[in-house]
C-alpha cells in the first residue's frame, strides 16, 4: 500500500512538472511572436 501511495504522489508531481513545462513553452511562443506595427493595426481597424 505504501508503494502505491508513493507512486501516486510521483504521478501527481510529474503532472505538475508537465503542466509547468507546457505553460513555459506557451509563454516563450507568445514572446517570440513579433507585435504588429501601428500602421497595419490602423489599416485593419479602418
Written account of the structure:
This protein is mainly alpha-helical and 46 residues long. The chain has one domain (2-45). It has two helices and no strands. It has helices spanning 2-32, 38-45. The N and C termini lie far apart (66 Å). 0% of the residues are buried. The model has no long low-confidence stretch (mean pLDDT 75).
Give a brief outline of the structure.
The chain has helices at 2-32, 38-45. With 46 residues, the chain is an all-alpha fold. The chain has one domain (2-45).
Key structural traits:
46 residues, mainly alpha
- The beta-strand count equals 0
Major sheet details: none
Q: Beta-strand level of the residues, as a percent range?
A: under 5%
Give helix and strand order, one letter per element, not per position.
HH
User: Helix amount, in percent?
Assistant: over 70%
> Helix- and strand-based class?
mainly alpha
Total of domains: 1
Amino acid at each position: 500500500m505504501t508503494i502505491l501511495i508513493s507512486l501516486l504522489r510521483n504521478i501527481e508531481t510529474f503532472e505538475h512538472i508537465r503542466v509547468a513545462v507546457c505553460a513555459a513553452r506557451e509563454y516563450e511562443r507568445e514572446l517570440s511572436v513579433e507585435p504588429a506595427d501601428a500602421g497595419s493595426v490602423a489599416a485593419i481597424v479602418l
